[in-house]
Write a structure and sequence with these properties.
With 87 residues, this protein is mainly α. It is 63% helix and 0% strand. Helix 1 runs antiparallel to helix 2. The relative contact order is 0.09. It has a domain of 60 residues.
Length: 87
């Protein structure tokens, strides 16, 4: 059985669940990056940690964009191939 974390006052507590973040689409990445920015601006998140998170989020965004572009190019290539093979 897993042990619960012990807090500073010595009591066992159940950790709060991490909110689910949808990073499958660019709008989810954008929303999370905005949340990180607001947390840094409010002093709730250290600038170094926030910058690292924003960098990783930007990489995720680039991968999503590249994947979408790749999917579209493949669809166009298939369409062209089908039209060239028809008499």
């Amino acid at each position: 059985m897993a042990r619960l974390p012990v807090t500073i006052d010595g009591t066992d507590s159940k950790p709060l669940p991490t909110p689910r973040i949808n990073l499958k689409r660019l709008d989810g990445v954008r929303n999370e990056m905005a949340r990180v920015y607001r947390a840094m601006k409010a002093g709730e998140l250290d600038g170094t940690d926030g910058t690292k998170r924003a960098y990783v989020l930007s990489l995720i965004g680039k991968l999503i964009a590249a994947s979408e572009l790749e999917r579209r190019v493949e669809a166009l290539e298939q369409r062209i191939s089908r039209s060239n093979s028809q008499p």
